[in-house]
Amino acid sequence: MKTPQRRVTLQDVANHAGVSRATASLIVRNSPKVAEKTREKVLKSMKELGYVYDRVAANLRSQSSTTIGTIITDVGNTFFAQFLLGVHQELEKYGYTVLLGTTFDSLQDQERLISTMLENRVGGILLCPVSSSSTETVERIKQLDIPIVLGIRELPDLACDYVGLDYQAGAYTAVKYLLEKKKHKRVAFIGGISDSSTWQERMSGYQRAHEEAGIPIDKSLIFDSEPTREGGLLAVEKIMKHPEPPTAIFCFSDLIAFGAIIGLRKMGYQPGEDIDIVGFDNIPEAEISYPPLTTISSFAQVTGTKAANLLHQRIREPVRERQRIIIEPQLIKRESS
């Protein structure tokens, strides 16, 4: 039976490179105090010896962790890809490593991922909660003294750091544009899960725009759905079968809008000409879609950057005052409306 190979230690690397263990330690921690020539020599030794940094052991020694747990709902959604770009770029500046988990909006998966993050002794958690989250989810983490920042979706009545968009203002701006500037009288609202706080805030903006315009809301023009292209396609097929179909559609997200555009074309409508479409998020595909999508920019990358920075601050100062950062939305006008 083959004897297992001994794990290469940092002392082995130091001996091989002809430097002290302290110098080798500075290099694995990306310290700027080491000369570039020495750094290159030690990194070469690490590669030749097959050295792997034991981050868990280092965390135990220092009683701290440079690993951050980030939990999102859908890695396939371009909005979250942009959000994660901001998170990664900001955390890398401070030397953190990101451990990523995806819930696909499942409460059970969220609980499992939180447990995994805690088992891996992460230094903090950046959580984009699933739509069915409760305050018990975060209270469980807070009891273990793990710094946490919520992103995108806020949990009601929970005193926790949060970064997100003013969803009500975004929906209000979009629907006001359709009612007042584009002179529509029947504006549908499709997509999203109605139990979620982000949907309810958009709904508040939708209602406010109608109230200010003096136009009654037809509740039969409101359809929720899964926040996907497929959800948008199914919702628009239902809404356009209405005896008095809408002349414009406000969509919960750009993904919903893309699905709606596909569905409208299947039914013989020309989006942007026969019916106006407005999305929400301004993901990169919105600009190059056909037609280019009018949408509300939710500044996903900026949100990720601010959330990561806020978590870094919370880790450094655990007792600092709670922060709630709300980003103002912007209407981006294109050819779909």
From TrEMBL:
Which keywords does UniProt give here?
DNA-binding, Repressor, Transcription, Transcription regulation
Q: One Pfam match, by short name?
A: Peripla_BP_1
**Domain HTH lacI-type, residue spans:** 8-62
Report the domain of life of the source organism.
Answer: Bacteria
Answer whether the UniProt record assigns the keyword Transcription to this protein. yes
Answer whether the UniProt record assigns the keyword Ion transport to this protein. Answer: no
- What are the protein's GO molecular function terms? DNA-binding transcription factor activity; transcription cis-regulatory region binding
What is the official name of this protein in its record? Answer: LacI family transcriptional regulator
